[in-house]
Amino acid sequence: MLWVEKPAPVPSGHKAKRRHAAGRYADIMRISLASSALATGLVAFAGTALPASAASGCSSDVFLVKGTSLAVELCAPPAAPRTGGKNPVTIVETLAAKGQPSLTRKVAFDAALGDETSRTIDDAPLQTLGIAGTLHMTIAYKSGAVRLEHALLVPGAIALK
Question: Sign of torsion, CA 48 133 121 103?
Answer without folding.
Answer: positive
